[in-house]
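Figure 3 (text version): structure tokens given as input.
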């Protein structure tokens, strides 16, 4: 159960990072355009 919780936390953490990078890229494109 602890292992599954750790995997779930890791997946959520990765999705959060990817979402921040994607938003940051859109923000940069918006500024440069």
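Below: residues designed for each position.
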């Amino acid at each position: 159960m602890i292992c599954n919780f750790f995997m779930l936390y890791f997946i959520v953490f990765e999705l959060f990072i990817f979402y921040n990078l994607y938003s940051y890229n859109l923000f940069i494109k918006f500024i440069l355009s």
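The radius of gyration is 14 Å.
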